[in-house]
Design a protein that fits this description.
By secondary structure, this protein is α/β, with parallel strands linked by helices. It is built from 7 helices and 11 strands. The strands form 3 sheets. It has a 5-stranded parallel sheet, with helices on both faces. A 3-stranded antiparallel sheet has the order 1-2-11. A hairpin with a 2-residue loop joins strand 5 and strand 6. Helix 4 runs antiparallel to helix 5 and helix 5 packs parallel to helix 6.
Amino acid sequence: MEQLSLSDVNICLWDKYNVSFTPHPDVNIIVGINGSGKTTLLTEMEKAVKDVVIDADRCIYIPSVDNLIAKDGRKKSTALSQYLDSYIYDMKSGPSLMYYRMSMLDASVSVQNRVKERVNKLLKIVNSLFKETGKKIEIDGNKFIIYSDGDILPLYSLSSGEKQLLLILLMVFLTDEKDSVILIDEPENSLDISWQYKLINLLVDLNPNAQFFITTHSPSIFGDGWGDRIIYMEDARRKI
């Protein structure tokens, strides 16, 4: 399998600016004022990577929750709820948590054990965070169960912050620790400050082989030892 990691970034924005920088191999935190082109940079990077990589699933873009578009406009549920439901339950094509778990049914014992260990690790991470809101996640067969004070809650009843956090963790988890380029736009929206502070460490733990590009306005995102991974749009962007 080809190695997937960007050794340089050189992207044209709006036929007006060129954004160029040498990225870190693990985490890159892109900051800049509103309108500086952070979101556009990520979308153009996604196009550039998917144009050259064989396995397009190894480059994923996680948009800001504000920019999610409903998968089915006929449903009353929010775009965020629809995305989360898909990444948990979609059994037709994946990627989803249940699709991933089903992949181990005819696999070797070593593969089965690895899948079980990774799923348990994901649940441990989620439950350590949801403990703060009195909730716990369990998986029983093909059921994704949310407990709160002994009661079972529907998925849509989670707060927007809980849904967003769960979606981000799931999407990174489902890269299955493969070499990947993961682009995340403003993950701090709706997230509690304590979750923002922990987020990058959790993402790297879920996929230590990924190269992350994360845009943010929140200092809490890079507050836990990632301050040396900051890239300023004002420094990287030049007029053509």
